[in-house]
TrEMBL record:
Major subcellular location class: membrane
Highest classification ranks of the organism: Eukaryota, Fungi, Dikarya, Ascomycota, Pezizomycotina
The name this protein goes by in its record: Mannan endo-1,6-alpha-mannosidase
UniProt similarity note: Belongs to the glycosyl hydrolase 76 family.
Organism: Penicillium cosmopolitanum
Catalysed reaction, written as an equation: Random hydrolysis of (1->6)-alpha-D-mannosidic linkages in unbranched (1->6)-mannans
Length: 460
């Protein structure tokens, strides 16, 4: 039998004593390690009520209509285990993260591969990379975590597209997908980050070469307008149909977080290069000023969708992903610690006040309201879990390791190279049957993603 954290049980008892208690809350004392762990435990418990992949007849790690979100859930579980030491969910984590890797060990599982975007696959690669860096033990009878990250890297660099804009990753993989003619920040920033992390973990030159290549493409005005490296504004996307001359400048926190964190890994890997420090500082400054400003009480807000209450499930996850990445950045670039931690603290305190829903500590979307806002879902629970666990960075947290500092995940530099189904961007052969199936799935998928990324660009 699985029980919620002790904190929840205790609060349950308190509630029965103080009958007029308004709603069950997460009582977070941000200076107290155990209090933060209890808050995380409560949020993760509720998060896992949305996971049925461990039940008989269910598929581990599968979220059919929103496949990429599984990677966000497993990232939250990895951070939770790493920062709290609680192994309660490690079996679900290990089995699900392995199951979805597909036959070729590159997170292109055949059930989903025909409608994936580069960003979807990338997030699973980042989850596997995180497992390696946090010393989550490899499985004995499957792909190692490191090889899975390498598999994603190897399949993605083959899709580097030079037909327009002098390079860059397209948003989508196949020509029949809506968004195929766009190059977006999360696909490029995500692969940049994955490359940077592989470079630091393995020390292999190819990963550093690619990290630099993707970065240079992203900042160079001649090729891409995605990052303005004078203002550090990060645009969401650019359109190949006009040669990447226009910016879809909708502001999303994860675009900043993806690039900032990659730069943080490269700063650390290069033993403190001033070039990467300037990038980290510039992107961090813009991230904090835009999404976690003092004028907002230092509370993380996804500013493009929260004020008007139009955040979709993807967008609700961004704050959580970025909170975790901020905690890693604070460790990898120690000079950023004092700017980051206070913002994580004020955000977590507000998030805790939002977790007062339904008399069972359900968390809402808008932390800055400092009360429950009526929203409920897996994504809300993932982001709340992430902001709580990120605060444990203040308590002697262990930084991501490398192959020379304790990481033992098995390397396979050729991982993913057996996969021939997903590498061509120009001449993919698709049967009518595949096309119909993928088209339907793409419609489902695009409802979420295009509204997220595309409209500002597609609509002008
Ligand atoms: C909390 O209550 C809501 C409303 O009844 C329910 O949907 C949700 O599953 C509950 N959460 C937990 C963790 O039990
Ligand atoms: C599946 O995981 C959930 C959440 O951790 C747990 O409550 C449940 O007992 C597990 N079911 C099985 C069959 O292991
Ligand atoms: C793909 O679907 C089949 C049939 O439902 C299932 O048995 C298998 O586990 C799924 N694989 C993945 C990676 O989800
Ligand atoms: C790798 O390290 C992890 C974490 O320290 C450990 O649990 C695991 O047994 C190690 N694996 C091997 C093959 O040494
Ligand atoms: C900004 O990008 C340009 C290339 O467009 C490069 O020459 C310059 O070094 C970059 N500066 C920083 C601070 O990254
Ligand atoms: C960083 O420092 C370590 C330890 O001194 C050294 O082995 C390594 O080569 C250095 N890395 C770089 C990129 O300078
Ligand atoms: C970011 O930089 C601007 C200009 O230097 C400065 O006014 C602002 O306080 C900085 N913000 C943060 C969060 O450091
Ligand atoms: C790299 O990260 C480690 C772990 O947090 C830290 O001890 C070290 O100081 C960092 N390196 C640099 C150059 O800041
Ligand atoms: C690639 O295929 C070869 C030959 O079938 C096989 O030995 C190898 O294990 C495969 N590698 C991966 C990563 O699947």
């Amino acid at each position: 039998m699985r029980l919620p954290g002790a904190g929840l049980l205790l609060r349950g008892l308190c509630l029965s004593v103080f009958l007029f208690s308004p709603a069950e809350a997460i009582d977070l004392d941000i200076s107290d390690e155990q209090s933060i762990k209890d808050a995380a435990s409560t949020a993760v418990y509720a998060m896992m009520t949305y996971y049925s992949g461990n039940e008989t007849g269910q598929i581990p790690g599968a979220f059919p209509s929103k496949w990429w979100e599984g990677s966000a859930l497993f990232l939250a579980l990895l951070h939770y285990w790493h920062y709290t030491g609680d192994t309660t969910y490690n079996d679900e984590l290990r089995v699900g993260l392995e199951w979805q890797s597909g036959d070729d060990g590159d997170y292109m599982p055949t059930n989903y591969s025909s409608y994936l975007g580069n960003d979807d696959q990338m997030f699973w690669g980042v989850a596997a990379m995180t497992a390696a860096e946090l010393q989550f033990a490899d499985v004995s009878d499957g792909f190692s975590w490191l090889s899975l990250a390498q598999g994603v890297f190897n399949t993605q660099i083959k899709r580097w597209d030079t037909t327009k804009c002098s390079g860059g990753m397209r948003w989508q993989i196949y020509p029949y997908q809506s968004g195929y003619t766009m190059k977006n920040a999360i696909s490029n920033g995500g692969l940049f980050q994955l490359s940077a992390r592989l470079a630091r973990y393995t020390g292999d030159a190819i990963y550093l070469t690619w990290a630099n290549k993707i970065w240079d493409w992203s900042v160079s005005e001649d090729s891409s307008p995605l990052i303005n490296n004078a203002t550090w504004d990060v645009a969401d996307s650019t359109n190949m149909e006009n040669d990447c001359t226009t910016r879809g400048d909708t502001q999303w926190s994860y675009n900043y977080g993806a690039y900032m964190t990659g730069a943080a890994y490269l700063y650390n890997y290069t033993n403190g290069s001033s070039y990467w420090l300037e990038a980290v500082d510039g992107l961090l400054n813009k991230t904090l000023d835009t999404f976690i400003p003092d004028s907002n009480g230092g509370i993380f807000e996804e500013v493009t969708c929260e004020p008007t209450e139009v955040c979709n499930n993807n967008e609700i996850l961004f704050k959580g992903l970025v909170s975790s990445w901020l905690s890693f950045t604070a460790m990898l670039v120690p000079s950023t610690y004092s700017s980051i931690v206070p913002k994580l603290q004020t955000s977590a305190q507000a998030a805790a006040k939002s977790c007062t829903g339904h008399s069972n500590s359900t968390c809402g979307v808008r932390w800055y309201q400092s009360k429950y806002d009526g929203w409920i879902g897996m994504e809300e629970q993932i982001s709340a879990s992430d902001i709580f666990t990120a605060n444990l960075v203040s308590f002697n947290a262990v930084a991501p390791v490398t192959s020379t500092t304790g990481g033992n995940s098995t390397s396979n530099p050729n991982a993913g190279n057996n996969d021939t189904t997903s590498t061509t961007t120009t001449s993919t052969t698709i049967t009518t049957k595949d096309k119909a199936g993928a088209g339907i799935l793409t419609v489902l998928f695009v409802v979420g993603w295009v509204s997220l990324i595309g409209w500002t660009v597609l609509g002008g």
